[in-house]
Structures are given as C-alpha cells and as structure tokens.
Amino acid sequence: MSYLCPVSTARDIRALSRDQIQEYFQSIGEPKFRAIQVYEWLWQKGAIDFNQMTNLSLSLREKLKEDFVINHIRVDEMQRSEDGTIKNAVQLYDGLVVESVLIPTDNRITACISSQVGCSLDCNFCATARLKRMRNLNPDEIYDQVVAIQNEAESFFGRPLTNIVFMGMGEPLMNYNNVIAAIEKITSPEGLGMSPRRITVSTVGLSKMIRKLADEDPKFKLALSLHSARDEVRNKIMSINLKNPVADLIDACQYWYEKTKSKVTLEYVVWRDINDSEEDIKALLKFCKQVPTKVNLIEYNPIDDGIFQQADFAAVEAYQLALQKIGTVATIRRSRGKDIDAACGQLANKNELLKDMNS
Hints:
Mean pLDDT: 89
CATH class of the largest domain: Alpha Beta
Shape: elongated
Structural class: alpha/beta
Distance between the termini: 8 Å
Radius of gyration: 22 Å
Strand order of the largest sheet: 3-4-5-6-9-10-11-12-13-14
Number of helices: 11
Strand content: 15-25%
Low-confidence stretches: 1-6
Helix content: 25-40%
CATH superfamily of the largest domain: Aldolase class I
C-alpha cells in the first residue's frame, strides 16, 4: 500500500523569507506591510490555509492560493499512554510519515521531535534505524511538529510547552541546515519565541558536525547518545563509531565546551552483558573526567529483539554512584509512553503507516 500523495508544483510560501514575500507583494502592486501580515499568520498564528488570513481581502487570498501552497503537516493518528504521554503519527504533505511525542511531567511538558523520515544510521538497539531514510524534513515540517504538540499541551493539560528535544526519528546533524533554520524560527519573536536554552539537539556522535555546530555559537543544548565509552563495544552497537571513535568524540565535545561553555549531556543506556561491567564504568568515568558533562542513565525500551536487555538496576546504580564520586551529575531516567511505543528508541516500531511506507 502506498501513502504517497500527489505533490503540488506551486511554491510553498513558507520556504520564502519575509523579504522574499515582501518582494512578491511589491511585484503584484500590493504594499510591503502585507508581507508582515502574512508572515505573522504563517509563523505566529500557525495558519494552514490562506482563507484563515482574514485581514487580507478575499481577492488577495485567492491570488495567494493561485501562486502558493502551505504544505502543512497533519496529525494522522494520536495515541495516549496511561502515563499521559501522547504520540503523534504525523503525515507530511507528500504522504510520508514521522512520529513526534509529547512527554508530560509535573513541572514541564517536552516535545520530542523528528528531523528525518526514517534514519540513515543503523544503531542496533533503535527501532527507527530499521526504517530506511526517505528524506530530510524541511524547517516548516519540524516547526509544525512543535506547534502540534504545543496545541496538545494546552488542550489536554492546560499548560504550555516548555522544552523541545530533537530525539525523535533521524539524526539531526545529518539534516543540519534545516534543523538550524527550524530552531531559528522556533526561537524567533516572529515565530514561537521559545528560549533556545529549552531546546536540546541530540546526536549519535558526528564529530565534524559537533565542531561545526560549536563554531556557530548556538544557545541551545547538545546531547550525545553515547551508550559506551569503549570503541570495541560502541563499534558493535553503533557502526557510526567506526568513523567517529571515542577519542574523536572527546575532542569534539571538548571543543564544544570551549566554544559554548555548555556541558554536553550524555545519553546512556545500560544493557545486560553488553556495557554493564566494571570496565565499562571505568571507561565512562575517563570520558567524563575529560569533558564537562552530565549523564542521563536511561531505562531501555525493548524493540522485540532479544539481544538487548535492560541491565539489572544494581548495575545502573553502580554507574550513578561512580559518576557522583567524581562530581558528575548522573540521573536515572524512567521511560514514559512505553505502552504506546513512544519511549526512547521505540519510534516507528509498530506504527502501521510507517510499516507500509517502508515495505
């Protein structure tokens, strides 16, 4: 079964800058301020149809419909977990599908956002890695996921969205330009106006791209999906490590801290008989002594694969105590949304649209 839709050849107006929209209005004999009005509708008010732009004349709205489209997303399926987590299957303008997640806690509501359709990496423990990468998401498609979760936060919880993590489908640093453009819109006063300090971009560890990102002096946070500080282990579970070994990651993270003065958050799952030994703990301690970090020890969420099993809690606690002894903040994170396959590493595991899309 195919979910691909016919794609309009008209330009997506959201791919234009405000200056370009201004030039368009001038070319059709309209005043410049129309661009400001349209830009506000698109990015602050989340308009998905030109008919919603009620401070424009009907004839001007019809003209916009002739010349442009708004390729907005649609939440095709929404699932709610027993713990309040919400998972969205988001259909894009061309029929492809990604997933995003709303994660509520007592003091925050976090949006977990996708950056690619599928993934081009092959981390053995991740469901998304089993999907072929179809394409990168455009900045507006990333932005729209945030808007959808912001609306759900208000509707279901009566609270605003507080945090955004790029930890959904795909590797954000392999869609670098579009992710940066989306964050600029999300944090702009002309967009959602969110603080960049409330945004975290997570990477599996692309050393060159971490350095490139650091050079841009970003105000958002960086997380590294590490899971082992031993090359012999990391090579087996994350083949990206073959080209980005641990020593290179240490150098890149040191460079990040020198440039940004922001600690790197290490995302770390402990698996039984894979990385739960004393040797594994010592390797992580060596890493953390060289790079200012904090560590999230994450509960593993099975993806119907017997190879990876959650380590005994005593092993996770051993990591936490050892890290605390050297002054590294280490937090044990309980997963949320497991009953709807919305937890870390589970996205795309059982969604029927995604299965068909990749068949």
